[in-house]
UniProtKB/TrEMBL annotation:
Oxidoreductase is among the record's keywords: yes
UniProt feature, compositional bias: Basic and acidic residues: 22-31
Name of this chain's protein: NADP-dependent oxidoreductase
Pfam families referenced in this protein's UniProt entry, alphabetically: ADH_N_2, ADH_zinc_N
Species of the source: Teichococcus oryzae
GO molecular-function terms, A-Z: oxidoreductase activity, acting on the CH-CH group of donors, NAD or NADP as acceptor
Keyword check for Oxidoreductase: yes
Length: 332
């Protein structure tokens, strides 16, 4: 049994692409569990795109990994020594144990894997782990896929996308993946059973037009960048987009200009366009509610009155330049 614990520490914060120079190896004696704790020998470590964010100290939804600390990551492993009543030697467990060979964890922070279920341990880091659960939330709760929807997912051969497409297909959608290269696109259709898969390294716009001739109802966004730019104009009326991640942009420093939509993911923002004409009942509701507020003096308004119909063109031009102050009307 290895008595030392090899750990990978974050040495410096990458600008752009992370590489070995940003990490440091450290060997320590194997840790010893105390009461309530469990000693775990790690078997598999999950590597996930979110880790790029943990290497940066830019504001985000989670704190960065401190310089000199063990990199964060989920592991599955085996209990070697237990001082917690919920675990026995030999149990298979999952937990956020970091980039290292061993760890001690309080039993309350570990999840026991089912016994002898025929599922490989590593699958609890992927298809049945965080990425698979992400796919499930995105498809069922955020996109609320309906039978007949045209559902598109980027990074379709990846951990999240591969599961998202399969869930959507089971929910009755026509599923189109986007992936990089012939080998991945073939895998997505032939192994995963998607209806189609297009290669973002080719002419993505034309390929999407061919695969989604009536447009896209649901887009599961994993990538951002040019893939996102190709998908957006092909969304149908009342389409839905689940912003899961934008891996193509994680190494870009500074981030791409413009309204960077990664803020939607980090801050769990809801973004929805609407047209008042789709809400006919609201007219009556608002005239009752707003009318009452107005009459009791609780609703203020200001008007900017242009005099004479002949002045309407000039007044309208002014509206687009900010010359009006308040609701612009023309006194005819
Ligand atoms: N919101 C959440 O809670 C949550 C949870 C988990 C994951 N995520 C996000 O979900 C996304 C997918 O994660 P994953 O774990 O499933 O990763 P993954 O798909 O297993 O791996 C990343 C894939 O992204 C694609 N990619 C990378 N750079 C690209 C680029 N420049 N242009 C186009 N495609 C590129 C590559 O696939 P191709 O070669 O096919 O392009 C690559 O294999 C990531 O954005 C991640 O941050 C979010």
């Amino acid at each position: 049994m290895t008595e030392t614990n090899l750990r990978i520490l974050l040495k410096s914060r990458p600008q752009g692409r992370p590489g070995p120079q940003h990490f440091e190896r450290s060997e320590e004696p194997r840790p010893t569990p105390r009461p309530g704790e469990v000693l775990v020998r790690h078997r598999f470590l999950s590597l996930d795109p979110y880790m790029r964010g943990r290497m940066s100290d830019a504001p985000s939804y989670a704190a960065p990994v401190a310089l000199g600390a063990v990199m964060e990551g989920e592991c599955v492993g085996e209990v070697v020594e237990s001082h917690h009543p919920g675990f026995s030697t030999g149990d298979r467990v999952r937990g956020a144990r970091g980039w290292q060979q061993w760890s001690v964890a309080h039993g309350s922070t570990l999840i026991k894997l089912p016994d002898q279920d025929g599922v490989p341990d590593s699958a609890y880091l992927g298809v049945l782990g965080m990425p698979g659960t992400t796919a499930w939330v995105g498809v069922t709760e955020i996109l609320q896929v309906k039978p007949g929807d045209c559902f598109v997912v980027s990074a379709a051969s990846g951990a999240v996308g591969s599961v998202a497409g399969q869930i959507a297909r089971r929910m009755g959608a026509r599923v189109v993946g986007i992936a990089g290269g012939a080998e991945k696109t073939r895998f997505v259709t032939e192994e995963l059973g998607f209806d189609a898969c297009v290669d973002h390294r080719g002419d993505l716009a034309s390929a999407l037009d061919a695969a989604c001739p009536n447009g896209i109802d649901c887009y599961f966004e994993n990538v951002g960048g040019p893939v996102q730019a190709a998908v957006f104009p092909r969304m149908r009326d009342f389409g839905r987009i689940a912003f899961c991640g934008m891996v193509a942009e994680y190494n870009q420093d500074p981030p791409p200009p413009g309204p960077n939509l990664m803020a939607l993911v980090r801050k769990r923002l809801r973004l929805q366009g609407f047209l008042v004409s789709d809400h006919p009942r609201a007219w009556k509701q608002w005239s009752e509610v707003g009318g009452a507020w107005l009459r009791e003096g609780g609703l203020r308004f200001r008007e900017d009155v242009a005099q004479g119909l002949e002045n309407a063109p000039e007044a309208f031009a002014g509206l687009l330049e900010g010359r009006n102050f308040g609701k612009l009307v023309v006194a005819i």
